[in-house]
Amino acid sequence: MPYHEQHMTVLQAVMHEGALHEDRGKELVIRLFNHNNTAQVLSEINAKLRPLCMTIKCINCEVTGELYWIFASTVQDKTASFVSHFSQAELALLRNVYSEIVTSTDSCVSSTFCLNLCSSLNVRLTKSDAEQFLFKMVNRQWLCCKDGKYYMGVRSIAELLQYFKDTYEENLQICALCKQELFYGDKCNKCDAIIHVYCLKNYAKNQNGLGCPNCQFSTPRQNLSSSNTSAMDIEDTSQMSMEIHEMAQSSQTKKLKRKHKNGLM
């Protein structure tokens, strides 16, 4: 199918959102194209974006398993440049949050710890401003928040993976099923294989609830049946949305500092 205005509308929606939820993307495709073949539409858009070294990536959230469409460059390097405009203090905080997530044994960092990082930054950032900034990063899918802890967001995975590879190569792990890098997943109690939560859920459904795909050792977390939801089910996702909303309400209404900066470092 030729590239039409409908394709541009989908592309603009993804660019505007930064990370467009698959459900919303499907609704848009059905409304514009009168079919639900999203793979075809994305392929046609990406064919036009390829010469520009840009693409729409489909990335699962490691915490919720939900799929997002993300507009990203196909050329990445260790500078981890941001299109958005963040202040020097905000970037310094984000750099530290990333470091804690990647190097943590739990693949996450508590919100309290993040706010306490403000006192160790070389530039001044109040806890109130930090809280507002982190809320914005969650809202824009750079970070994921659950139970008062921050995890790596889908946009960070899609747009900054090369930066993480270059900076934290020894800390990155590979999913035993999809063989892709992961920041958060389920770990086997026997062989230490680590697997994306959504990969494990799909494996359990297709294999009738078998255990670890690497050693077949069965644990309560890994012995999932096709009738079960993933480790982070719909109720958890709703709770996460409530937590983010409460975070926003508790914050003082302040205007975020806007200052151009090309790279994370």
What can you tell me about this protein's structure?
The radius of gyration is 19 Å and the shape is globular. Among the domains are: 5-73, Aspartate Aminotransferase, domain 1; 88-168, Winged helix-like DNA-binding domain superfamily/Winged helix DNA-binding domain (Arc Repressor Mutant, subunit A, Orthogonal Bundle); 173-207, no CATH class. Strands 1-3-2 form a 3-stranded antiparallel beta sheet, with helices on both faces. It has 9 helices and 10 strands. 43% of the residues lie in helices and 13% in strands. With 265 residues, the protein is an alpha+beta fold.
Summarize the structure in short.
It is an enzyme of class 2 (transferase). This protein is α+β, with helices and mostly antiparallel strands and 265 residues long. Among the domains are: 5-73, Aspartate Aminotransferase, domain 1 (Alpha-Beta Complex), CATH 3.90.1150; 88-168, Arc Repressor Mutant, subunit A (Orthogonal Bundle); 173-207, no CATH class.
List keywords for this structure.
about 260 residues, alpha+beta, Aspartate Aminotransferase, domain 1
Secondary-structure map:
Elements (H helix, E strand, L loop, with lengths): L4 H13 L1 E3 H12 L4 H12 L4 E7 L6 E7 L14 H16 L5 E2 H6 L10 H13 L3 E4 L2 E4 L1 H14 L5 E2 L6 E2 L3 E2 L6 E2 L1 H10 L27 H17 L15
Antiparallel strand pairs: 1-3, 2-3, 4-6, 5-6, 7-8, 9-10
Helix pairs in contact: 1-2
GO molecular function, one term: zinc ion binding
EC number: 2.3.2.27
Protein name: Non-structural maintenance of chromosomes element 1 homolog
